[in-house]
């Protein structure tokens, strides 16, 4: 009998998940993560960080050494079939039957999850992915980008409530990348929860609600994207000068300045969390030095810079 936990706000609950192999390699070191219903969360991490291992355990492809995972209240070990029906996975690797037709591949995938036949739904999915005209083509006749679209169609065929996208845009064309993010937006509007792993940090910055950083099998942090950038972000002020400068003038050496690449600017960096920016004193000293200010521009650290800093801190 399938037991289901009630009154859970998170659709995916991962608690103290560990995975080690007979070789001694430790892939996950006690990962705990709560993912809310209907959110998009991006997991960022370098190769070998544990992202794919984590997804593989949740999807029942790999067994955990210890810990627990529930999907909408269903335990992935005790209630495997009920939990797995709720999950769609678009893997990194393209593993498809080469001589099977697109339509049969997608229809079979739906059937494997015990779903009743629904050709109208599958047609909508294939049209959404620009695959309808290729429905009678064999997999081995398709381009790499089209095969990736078939993987997405397979993952959506059984109407999952949680969708994993494991490095979905690595090596794909710009058109497919755009289509994929359009589909993600539609699915999100339908209440589907999406977990994305990516090296393309600008994509996480563009579409995710929360960002998790994982390195060496550990979650370093999970935070709302805007809050993460506000809390950890540095602000950069570019002082455009009327005259060219070689390096930082001695009179301004005590400020956190670096010369700009154009030879006509100085870049001032400060912590957005600090009580004072030090900018007023800098501008006073700049005027006293005789340098004429032409323009001032500001920008905030990107997630890319924050991510690199976090991983570097963990390695030290």
Automatic annotation (TrEMBL):
GO MF terms, alphabetically ordered: ATP binding; ATP hydrolysis activity
Residue ranges the record marks as coiled coil: none
Pfam families listed in its UniProt record: ABC_tran
PANTHER family membership: ABC TRANSPORTER ATP-BINDING PROTEIN
Protein name: Multidrug ABC transporter ATP-binding protein
The ABC transporter domain, residue ranges: 12-241
Organism: Seohaeicola zhoushanensis
Stored SUPFAM superfamilies: P-loop containing nucleoside triphosphate hydrolases
Lineage: Bacteria, Pseudomonadati, Pseudomonadota, Alphaproteobacteria, Rhodobacterales
Top-level taxon in the UniProt lineage: Bacteria
Keywords (A to Z) from UniProt: ATP-binding, Nucleotide-binding, Transport
Keyword Kinase recorded: no
């Amino acid at each position: 009998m399938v037991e289901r936990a009630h009154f859970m706000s998170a659709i995916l609950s991962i608690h103290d998940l560990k995975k080690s192999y007979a070789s001694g390699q430790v892939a996950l070191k006690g990962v705990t993560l709560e993912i809310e219903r209907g959110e998009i969360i991006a997991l960022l991490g370098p190769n070998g960080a544990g992202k794919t291992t984590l997804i593989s355990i949740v999807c029942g492809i790999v067994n955990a050494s210890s810990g627990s995972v529930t999907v909408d209240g269903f335990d992935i070990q005790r209630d495997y079939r009920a939990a797995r029906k709720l999950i769609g996975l678009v893997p990194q690797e393209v593993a498809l039957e080469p001589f099977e037709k697109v339509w049969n591949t997608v229809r079979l995938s739906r059937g494997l999850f015990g779903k009743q036949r629904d050709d109208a739904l599958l047609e909508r999915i294939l049209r959404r992915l620009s695959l309808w005209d290729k429905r009678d083509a064999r997999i081995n006749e398709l381009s790499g980008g089209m095969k990736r679209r078939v993987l997405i169609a397979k993952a959506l065929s059984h109407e999952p409530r949680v969708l994993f996208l494991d490095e979905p845009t690595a090596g794909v064309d710009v058109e497919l990348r755009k289509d994929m993010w359009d589909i993600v937006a539609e699915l999100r509007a339908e209440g589907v929860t999406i977990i994305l792993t990516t090296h393309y940090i600008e994509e996480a910055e563009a579409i995710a609600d929360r960002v998790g950083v994982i390195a060496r099998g550990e979650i370093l942090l999970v935070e709302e994207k805007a809050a993460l950038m506000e809390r950890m972000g540095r602000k950069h002020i570019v002082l455009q000068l009327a005259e060219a400068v070689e390096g930082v003038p001695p009179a301004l050496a005590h400020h956190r300045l670096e010369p700009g690449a154009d030879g006509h600017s100085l870049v001032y960096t400060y912590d957005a969390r600090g009580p004072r920016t030090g900018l007023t004193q800098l501008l006073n000293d700049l005027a006293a030095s005789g340098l004429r200010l032409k323009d001032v521009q500001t920008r905030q650290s990107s997630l890319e810079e924050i991510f690199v800093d976090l991983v570097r801190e963990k390695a030290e």
